[in-house]
Specification:
With 514 residues, the chain is an alpha/beta fold. Helices cover 34% and strands 20% of the residues. The chain is built from 14 helices and 24 strands. The strands form 7 sheets. The chain has a 7-stranded mixed sheet with strand order 15-18-19-14-13-20-21, sandwiched between helices. The protein has a 5-stranded parallel sheet with strand order 10-9-8-11-12, with helices on both faces. Helix 4 packs parallel to helix 5. The longest helix is centred in the N-terminal third of the chain and has 21 residues. The chain is globular and about 70 Å long. The site of NADP nicotinamide-adenine-dinucleotide phosphate has 24 residues, from helix 7.
């Protein structure tokens, strides 16, 4: 009997027939894991979401929708072993599973808990009452859910977290969702989605799953719809410039490429705790999820006097990273998501080599035996001697276990190099010097969506450079796409309309349901 999974889309509260021709293969050994279904009818899905899902969700209050999130999180928790087993086939280790699967479920829990602070009502106030007139007339902003459809287009690197981090704030806001996972690894996203449906916690029409091509879906959206995209900058610009998206002012949020930096302060020495913390974080970010994290450190910036010391410390630690079968406990780094992704990484490393030399790695790995068909790639450190005049190291994201170390002379150059990425999701700073930290944050914050500052006193409690937290904004300006997901209520904003009401205070009380 074949173990190949026949995947289905879920439309209008039914699983559609499976049985398309496209095969999805294991990242570890190239064996066939699943087949994709034929494409679904996008117009029918939009219609169902608008007619059934939206009204059902909007009939509930913010607090009631928060309870749905809690039920989904409980259902996924009870069956997460099923997800772990599939996740290994995407190349993920046990540690990576914690990030994707437990991290995704944790996001639902946090949003469920945040919902308790929201009104048990259908409309939310935004800020306080504004005095706009001397007389019997005032202003009040309110927020209400859009009455269209939220379309979520996700990247392949986090099949579970990537779906849930968008789903939680959207459901809480009160919009029905069409989830379109990336095709690579879609079997894991489908399994997590199936568990949520089987939980029975969702109202009819609240969520649908569209596997494969979106067809003409985006051309049918209007001003009450909202698109949240995660993936490459190239795809993002192709999609957000579709005529219907522009003509109908469809909300379009993008999370895309990012050349995230980590900076070691000028106060560090090879013996200081910050040096050690910095090296550990750089290596963790290079190897976790085989470097396929939008938040991973791509640019490692060190004071020029510490360049050689930092380089050898990183190389030595990378040398202890066991690359292999992600199902084995001892494995520290698994495979890339597939052979095509590995080719992409190799091609981007070749481009980076015009400006930086490979210090270690730089090539695909054939682990032999049963793993010879796997998409393994060596942890790769490059060194760029002249980052001030370089272009590629600040612009090309090799989406794998690849990072470039580079020197800076002083605080001003550290700021300038950090900002040369032209907008990133996250930057981290390892320093025990308040002057260095304040200088870097004040010169760089406007180029980075999130900044993590770590020193010897905070390290034990620090949450990590790469971890996007449900409490804090995930998204960055410029190259990173200009989006803002998560961040508690910030993540709900793409799905809510703000309206400024101007009326007598007594009328405002009535309208706001106070
Ligand atoms: P991608 O090729 O741009 O694909 C992203 C998503 O868009 C996939 O679901 C893909 O579906 C879909 N897609 C592609 N063409 C489409 C079209 N014409 N119409 C509708 N949907 C379309 O990116 P990827 O290779 O999956 O992901 C890697 C990239 O994502 C990296 O560059 C990484 O930086 C970025 N990323 C960013 C973040 C972030 O939060 N900033 C997070 C993760 C990844 P198919 O798979 O079916 O083609």
């Amino acid at each position: 009997m074949s173990n190949v999974i026949s995947l289905s889309s879920y439309a209008a509260d039914h699983w559609l027939p499976a049985g398309g021709a496209t095969e999805l293969v294991s990242a570890i050994d190239g064996s066939v894991v699943a087949t994709m279904p034929a494409s679904a009818d996008a117009a029918a899905m939009l219609d169902h979401a608008r007619r059934i899902g939206g009204p059902a969700l909007r009939a509930m209050t913010f607090q009631q929708r928060g309870k749905i999130l809690r039920a989904l999180a409980d259902a996924l928790t009870a069956r997460k072993d099923e997800l772990y087993a599939l996740s290994h086939l995407t190349g993920a280790t046990r540690g990576d599973n914690m990030f994707d699967i437990d991290g995704g479920i944790g996001t639902l829990f946090v949003y469920a808990s945040k919902a308790k602070a929201l009104p048990d009502a259908h409309v939310m106030l935004d800020g306080g009452r504004e005095a706009i007139s001397k007389g019997n007339f005032a202003g009040q902003h309110i927020l209400a859910p859009l009455n269209g459809v939220a379309v979520h287009i996700n990247a392949y690197n986090f099949p579970v977290w990537g779906m849930l981090e968008k789903l939680a704030p959207t459901l809480l806001a009160g919009m029905p969702i069409i989830v379109k996972p990336a095709t690579v690894g879609a079997y894991l996203a489908e399994a997590a989605f199936r568990i949520m449906i089987e939980s029975g916690a969702l109202p009819l029409g609240a969520v649908q799953l569209l596997l494969g091509s979106t067809g003409d879906l985006l051309d049918q959206l209007d001003c009450q719809d909202s698109v949240a995209f995660t993936g490459s900058a190239v795809t993002a610009s192709r999609l957000k410039t579709r005529p219907a998206i522009i003509a109908n002012t469809v909300r379009f949020a993008a999370e895309q490429d990012s050349l995230n930096a980590s900076v070691l302060g000028t106060d560090a020495t090879p013996d200081s705790p910050e040096f050690d913390l910095f090296i550990k974080e750089a290596v963790r970010e290079m190897t976790q999820k085989a470097g396929q994290k939008c938040t991973a450190i791509r640019r490692i910036m060190v004071p020029e006097t510490l360049l050689d010391a930092a380089q050898s410390a990183i190389v030595s630690r990378l040398g202890k990273t066991t690359v292999g079968d992600p199902r084995q406990e001892a494995t520290r780094m698994g495979a890339l998501a597939g052979l095509a992704q590995r080719e992409d990484v190799a091609a981007n490393v070749a481009l980076l080599m015009a400006e930086a030399a490979v210090v270690t790695g730089g090539e695909a790995l054939d682990l032999g035996g049963a793993l010879s068909g796997g998409a393994f790639f060596a942890p790769t450190l490059l060194r760029c001697e002249n980052p001030g005049s370089a272009q590629a190291v600040h612009a090309i994201e090799a989406f794998g276990p690849v990072s470039t170390i580079m020197p800076y002379a002083d605080l001003a150059e550290a700021v300038s190099l950090a900002n040369a990425g032209k907008g990133s999701l996250v930057m981290s700073v390892f320093s025990h010097d308040p002057a260095f930290v304040t200088g870097l944050v004040s010169g760089s914050s406007i180029f980075h969506g999130r900044m993590m500052i770590v020193d010897r006193d905070s390290a034990a409690d620090a949450t990590g450079h790469g971890a996007a937290l449900p409490h804090l904004q995930h998204g960055g300006p410029g190259r990173a796409g200009g989006g803002a997901e998560l961040g508690g209520f910030i993540g709900m904003m793409p799905y809510l309309q703000r309206t400024a009401l101007q009326a007598a205070p007594v009328t405002l009380d009535l309208l706001a349901g106070i």
